[in-house]
Amino acid sequence: MVINMENNWTILNQSLLAGQKIQIMADMGVSGCEMPFTLINGTAPGKTVLITAAVHADEYPGVVASIKVAKEIKPNEVKGRIIICHCVNTSGFWARTRTVECGANLNANFPGKAEGTSGERIADFFVKNILPQVDFLVDLHSGGVMTTLTPCLFFPYATKDEVRMESLAAAHATDIPYFIASRATSGLYSYAATVMDIPVLLLERGHTGQCREDWVKSYIKDVRLLLNYLSCYPFEYTGQLCPKKTYEKTAYPEADVSGLWYPAIRENMYVKKGDLLGHIEDFWGNCIAKFHAEDNGVVFYYESSLSVTTGETLVAYGLDSHLI
Questions:
Q1: How would you classify residue 290: left for phi > 0, otherwise alpha for psi between -120 and 50, otherwise beta?
Q2: I want to staple 119 with a disulfide (CB 3.0 to 4.6 A). Which of 100, 107, 149, 250 is the partner?
Q3: Which CATH superfamily is domain 9-245 in?
Q4: Distance, CA of 124 to chain centre
Q5: What does the pLDDT profile of the chain (324 residues) look like in tens digits?
Q6: Do 298 and 317 form a contact (C-beta atoms < 8 A)?
């Protein structure tokens, strides 16, 4: 979608002139769910890029990074248009929870409903008012309060070849070492890719509810690298990017019993087939379950809470036998 810059840009009931940047709180009619946006209309033709943060409201580095990126961007140097939603889940942000106040996980709630719950209405709002104008989506995430994580990203795998390849090509522009093939279909990024044919990346940096400055700086670099790759905003980077590995398959062992979880691994740790990933005990210190690696691979993230319940994902690790 190459745009005609002779006309104003109309989005979210706003009309922007070429070279204009505005900040708005988008009201979708759900109290407490107003979303902060920065809208930037460039001065030359190009792609429309959407950047989102806090789809999960307890994941903070992307929020701060998106704010800082938006402040530094000069509209007269932009080619195309940039939409930045600094906090998708504002109700959860203020409540210090992960989900929307209705309990919805926005990464599994699309396409939503116009007259549904607050989570369904947020999803419907994006599907109808924003995604139809978007050429590329960058969704910023982190490990939640109880998840420890190494930098990684998800790219769409269950989609059209051209969408998958364009997404994966853009991933190589980041400074993130591990690429995870995603087969999800109902999240913001996955619905955009699998249903609306929009190339997307879901980036992961930071964890455990923290917002460290080094994570924010790294996220700013990733976003700037992507905007430069998409020919949307210039960024001269002379450093060396990290080596990359792309995993077609990731293992997600789940707890088959509730109890006290003792991980035997750490983020970014290399495990070999048969290695102990962790075990679960009861309240009397008796081991009631053990979990071992099914193949060699790298630990992307793991549950760091002592308490776990049946069905919870304990670890995510890429399988070396399924490297692309």
A1: beta
A2: 100
A3: Zn peptidases (3.40.630.10)
A4: 18
A5: 445 546 799 999 999 999 999 999 999 888 889 999 999 999 999 999 999 999 999 999 999 999 999 999 999 999 999 999 999 999 999 999 999 888 889 999 999 999 999 999 999 999 999 999 999 999 999 999 999 999 999 999 999 999 999 999 999 999 999 999 999 999 999 999 999 999 999 999 999 999 999 999 999 999 999 999 999 999 999 999 999 999 999 999 999 999 999 999 999 999 999 999 999 999 999 999 999 999 999 999 999 999 999 999 999 999 999 999
A6: yes
- Which value, in Å, is the radius of gyration of the alpha carbons in the chain? 20
Buried b (16+ CB within 10 A) or exposed e, 276-288: ebbbbeeeeeeee
What DSSP assignment string belongs to 162-229?
A: HHHHHHHHHHTTSS--EEEEE---SSHHHHHHHTT---EEEEE---TT---HHHHHHHHHHHHHHHHH
Q: Comparing C-alpha atoms, which of 243, 252, 242 is closest to residue 318? A: 252
| 27 token code pair | 């009201």
**DSSP result, 15-77:** EE-TTEEEEEEE--S-TT--EEEEEEE-SEEEEEEEEEE-SSTT--HHHHHHHHHHHH--GGG
CB contact at 8 A, 251 and 316: yes
CATH code of the domain made up of 251-322: 2.40.50.100
**Exposed e or buried b per residue across 126-162, where buried means at least 16 C-beta atoms within 10 angstroms of its C-beta:** bbeebbebbbbbbbbbbbbbbbbbbbbbbbbbebeee
Q: Which of 178, 166, 183 is nearest to 226 (CA)?
A: 166
Domain extent listing, the chain: 9-245, 251-322
The total number of residues written for the chain in this structure = 324
Secondary structure of residue 148 in the 3-state scheme: strand
> What's the distance, CA 242 to chain centroid?
20
Instruction: Tell me if 9-245 shares its fold with 251-322.
Output: no
Separation of alpha carbons 319 and 180, rounded Å:
10
